Amino acid sequence: MYDHLNRTKKSFRFMGTDSNDKPAVVAEGPSVGGQAVQNWTLLRLLPLLIFDLVDVTTAEWAFLLLLREGVELVCAPKLSQAQVLYLNRLVKALCCRMSESLFRCSSSSKASLSSSLPMVDHCFWTSHSCVDNENGDKAYIL
Question: How is the chain split into domains, by residue range?
Answer without folding.
Answer: 1-54, 56-142
